[in-house]
TrEMBL record:
SUPFAM superfamilies: GIY-YIG endonuclease (SSF82771). Belongs to the UPF0213 family. This is GIY-YIG nuclease family protein. Signal peptide: none annotated. It comes from Mucilaginibacter glaciei. It holds the Pfam family GIY-YIG. PANTHER family: BSL5627 PROTEIN, UPF0213 PROTEIN YHBQ. It comes from the Bacteria. Gene3D superfamilies: GIY-YIG endonuclease (3.40.1440.10). InterPro entries: GIY-YIG_endonuc (IPR000305), GIY-YIG_endonuc_sf (IPR035901), UPF0213_domain (IPR050190). Residues 4-80 form the GIY-YIG domain.
Amino acid sequence: MWNYNYFTYILTNLTKNVLYIGVTNDLKRRLYEHKEDKSNGFTAKYHCHYLIHYERFTDIHQAIDREKEIKKWRREKKDALVATQNPEWKFLNEEVNEGI
């Protein structure tokens, strides 16, 4: 059986007042794309370049379902999710770049 990795992730901006939820099969590459504003979308407009939460899945459908679930939540619930694994809201980009 193949071992695939998919990630649901949450990004924020420098002041941590905007959240973006996404899904990818290559978190390191996707963070680079967000940082370089490779798309002219939400993350570029609001400068969401900082990873504060991620979850790993082996099934793409589970990752997409989780992304959709989190996107429906109110901001308070999203904040609480981040705080469960990252109570200080540290930027985790370097952790990913070093290899997760």
